[in-house]
Every structure is written in C-alpha cells, then in structure tokens.
Design a protein that fits this description.
The structure is a homodimer of 319-residue chains.
Chain A lengths: L2 H8 L5 H16 L4 H12 L5 H10 L5 H25 L3 E2 L2 E2 L1 H27 L3 H23 L8 H23 L6 H25 L2 H4 L5 H5 L4 H9 L1 H4 L8 H13 L2 H20 L6 H16 L3
Antiparallel strand pairs in A: 1-2
C-alpha cells in the first residue's frame, strides 16, 4: 500500500479497511467475466496496482457510515481512472506502466481500446446499481473532463509558449476533476459537499504538480521511469514553464529534438533555476489550503484527521 | 432519411416525428460544448449521418406514450453506437465513413480516442438524467458486449477456419445486443419486453448479415465502399464461410495476401456459389420470425405495424 493509504489505515479508522477491501473485491468482480480475453486484460490492469487514492477519498468523504453505495462509487471512480490510463497507453504506445507491461503491449491496440471502453462502461453500470442518478451524471461530466484534459495535453505538446494558466487548466481537467468527483460522490447531498469538492480539487492539483516535479527530480529507481520523460513526450509542465522564465536558454529548448541525455541535462538546468522548489511550494500551499477548508466542514475529529492525512500523504510521497 | 425511417414516418404515426426531432436536438446539445476541439469532433460525428435506426427502435418500443425519458434513452443508445464507430475508425485508421472524413482523419488518434470516450460517457450521463438505474446498467452491459464483439472480430481476422457459430456469436455481440437494448430500454417493465428484446436481436442479426452480403455484392456507388472491403480487412463473414463450404478454392484463399482486384474476384466466386442467396435467406427468415413475435406482444395495431415496417426496412435497404 502506498503512503497515503498506509498512513490512513495506520491511523486506525476501524471501519475503513473493511470498506477498502470490499471496493477491491468489487473491482475484481467487475473486471472479471466479459469473455476470456477482455476479462484477463481488465484484471491485469487492476492488478498492476495503483494507489487507490480516489476510492480512499470517496470512502473518507462518505465517512464511517459508508455503505454499499459508497463502495460502488469508490470502485466506479477508480474504473474511470483506469480506463483513462489504458487509453493513454494506447496513444503513447507505452510498453510499461508501474513497471508492468501495459495492456497495449500485451494485447495490442484493439485489445487495449476495448479494455478501456469496458472499464468506462462498467464504471457507469456499477454506479447506476447504487441507484443515484446524480452520481452517474457527475461521473459522466468528470469523465468528459478527463478526456478533454488528456486531449489538451496532446494538443499543447512541444509548445513552450503556453503559460501557467493553460497548464493549470489542463491539470484541473485531467487530474483535479476526478479528485473533486471522488469527494462529491462520496458525500452526496451532505452538508459541506462544496467545501469537500474544493478540498478534492486542491489535493488533486497538488498531486499533479508534485508528479510533474518528480519527473524532473527522479530518481528513476523511485519513480520507475527515466528523468525527463515528460520533456521527451513534449509535455510542458510547471517546472519547465517557471524555469524558462528564469533561464533564457531553456526558453529556446526544442523539445522535439531532445534525446534521453538531453532531457536529463534539461532536468538539471530546470533544477538549477529553483523552479522545482517554487512548484513544490505551490503544491504545499494548495495542500495547506485544502486542509484548512476541512475546518469548516461538519466532520467529526476522526474524519477531519483522516482527510488531512490523505492531503499530507500526497506531499509525503514526494518528500 | 434512410428507408426504414422514411417508411415509418410515411406511415404517419403523428407522434413520432416530434420525438425523433427531439432526439436529434438532444444529440446535438450533448455533442456540443466540452471545449472547442472535442465539441467540434463530436458534432461532426453526429452530422456525418447514420440511419438512427436504434433511436427509432427505442421510440417505437416506447410507443405513442414516449416521453422525455424515452427520448433520452434513444439519444443514449445512438451515442454508444457512435462511440463504437469512432473508436473502430481509430483502430482501422479509416479515412472515410459514410463518405465523410472520420474523426481520426481530421483530428488524429488522440482526438478520436477522446471523442469516443466523450460520446460513451455522455451516453450514460444522459440516461441517468432520465432517472432509470436499470437502463444505465443495461446500456453498460450492452456497451461491454459491443467492445467484446469488436475485439472478437479483430482477433478472428484472417482466420477462415472459424465457422458460422463463431460468426453469429460475434454478430450478436457487436450488433444485435444494441438493437436488443434499444427495444428493452424503450419499454422498461412493460409487458412483452422479453419478446421485443428477441425481436430486436433478430432484426439486428438480420441487419448485420445483410450488411455482410452487401459488402460482397456492392455496387460501390450504392454502398459507398469498394466491394470486398471486409475481405481486405480480413473479416470473415457468413457469405465467405458458406461459400467456402461449397467451393474448395475459396477454402484456400489467403486473405492476408489479397489486393483490391483479388478481393473483387473473390466476391465473384462467393456469389457464384449461391452463398449470398443463402445468407440473404437466413436474414429474411430472421426478419419474418421477428415480425411474428410481435403478434404476441400487447401492442395496438399501429405500433405493431410500425415495428413491422422497421424490420421490413432493414431488408428493403438491401433489395
């Protein structure tokens, strides 16, 4: 289990492990079946790991009263996340994710496209079984936002002239919206839902910013990928945007021409500008703001503490 | 408007044109927005036409009492159909569909993958707004069946040893299940739903069989594609399966080696065996069986007549 989940489980909320376990079993049941080939690919996607941060948020926002509907929502949110990853890997023709072969690597583009469609469709089916039409609509809108965010990232690729606003908007679409959705969907119509939504948005944004910092800092043995992978993909992230404001040579960097050695040199140059500390600082401020919002939500001490631990866990993963 | 829809509209069900118009407007509203790029691609997909056979079935099975929920269901079923087409075109790298450039041709693989995900997600959102969780679950299961069917078609490609049972199972998954879903979703919990589901399944199967016959017969000016396109794609359909049982030379046909001229020659050989009449005959028997089932459903004369016209329209398109 990765740090945020471990920290929360160690904190000893007696009801949580059971609900997380049920979510995992529901994910397994949902991935299985559907014919041998598709079921195997969907199951492999599930077993490839993942932090299960989004289901954790759903359950924590549902609170100790988290019921079968919350478990279904938790699984549905994770399925949408997985579907996005599987389709992204098709577009990137990515051989590995989290150190394991991707679906596109093992089953080809058609297998992976179908697996993504399966995971997406099953997410909505699961959620509908919980009987909450508002939740299905919310997940639908969120899923569209994810698609828009991924598309924006690809359309904006290799364009260093795009500034931080565009970057942040993209992060909101491709990452923060699903965190928001997790919080809202876990707490439908309960007081404070809007504040929890905002909490989710900030935690999601911080998560993405720190992920983008980590791409520059490595080390590869920890991140499971080479330093500067984003640069090689042409993905312009906040560390590069901020560094280019400070270092004219980075402004003239041609991402399309980079090789691995060039990407690592660019990472060093970015680090030398202090842009990483700056981006990390922004992320920490978001996490602090997110935790501050919790004070105004009607939560008991334990619920507030656990949601605070998740926010901290997002940072700790990178410290 | 294509034959089945025209025939039904000509038949003068006064309530139907208004509901079909509402479905079309709902499809337009659903495709628009979502950012300029995605919205434009989704709208283009919609405007590229299509027979709207599936929405027609939803509305006819709902009957003269078809309400806003039925219109939403009609649009949702069409959106799932469109999502499948867009993703298929990505996998095939298809330049044209229905004589217009595909999304993958105009916006690349990433744009088309995102557009398909958008259409799929919005389908479930629309349906949830109609407030029927059973309908969302049904559409989810159906969407998974479509993904399985498409995958099966790709996995089975170029393999002439696969027989008719496997072919029919694939047609059920990739085509008939969505027709079934259209009928069921239009008539939830009304008496006779199972019979209408079976009617939909048979009409869908007949539709696919006749489509596969048309690929062999052409003519291209009518179908909008060259004869033998399935053969060139390696898709083994009933006409070829039946023809190969009658003509040993077709049994040793190497689909992977075919060029356009070879595909047309193979089409002529298939036609010479009488396999086309045989496949067409099977489709006609399915349509007759489908129409026969309607006698046992509690429908008024007008409803039964219109559903009969749809079934006939599927055949007429090919006569």
């Amino acid at each position: 289990m990765p740090p945020p989940v471990t920290a929360v489980l160690d904190a000893g909320a007696a009801w949580l492990p059971a609900r997380l376990g049920e979510t995992e079993r529901l994910l397994e049941d949902t991935a299985a079946g559907h014919g041998a080939a598709l079921g195997a690919d969907a199951t492999a996607t599930l077993n490839a790991g993942g932090k299960r941060l989004r289901p954790l948020l759903v359950l924590l926002c549902a609170g100790p009263g988290a019921d079968a509907a919350a478990v279904r929502a938790a699984a549905a949110v994770e399925l949408v996340h997985m579907a996005t990853l599987v389709h992204d890997d098709v577009l990137d023709d990515a051989p590995l994710r989290r150190g394991r072969p991707t679906v596109v690597a093992t089953s080809g583009r058609s297998g992976a496209t179908a697996t993504g469609d399966l995971l997406l469709s099953r997410a909505f089916g699961l959620l509908a079984a919980a009987g909450d039409a508002d939740a299905v609509r919310l997940l639908s809108e969120t899923s569209v936002a994810l698609a828009r965010g991924e598309l924006a990232q690809r359309r904006d690729a290799f364009d260093l002239s795009l500034g931080r606003e565009r970057y942040l908007e993209r992060c909101r679409l491709k990452t923060a919206r699903l965190f928001e959705c997790a919080c809202l969907i876990g707490r439908p119509r309960r007081p404070g839902a809007e504040l929890l939504q905002r909490y989710g948005s900030l935690v999601g944004l911080a998560f993405q910013l720190l992920d983008d910092v980590l791409d520059v800092t490595g080390p590869p043995e920890r991140t499971g990928k080479a330093r500067g992978t984003d640069l090689l993909d042409g993905t312009v992230t906040l560390p590069l945007i901020e560094a280019a404001e400070r270092d004219p040579e980075l402004r003239s960097l041609d991402l399309a021409e980079l090789d691995q050695a060039g990407a690592e040199r660019a990472c060093d140059r970015i680090a030398a500008t202090g842009a990483l500390e700056s981006a990390r600082g922004e992320a920490l401020a978001m996490v602090a703001e997110a935790k501050g919002l919790l004070d105004d939500v009607d939560l008991d001490v334990e619920e507030r503490r656990l949601l605070g631990l998740v926010a901290d866990g997002v940072v700790e993963r990178y410290s």
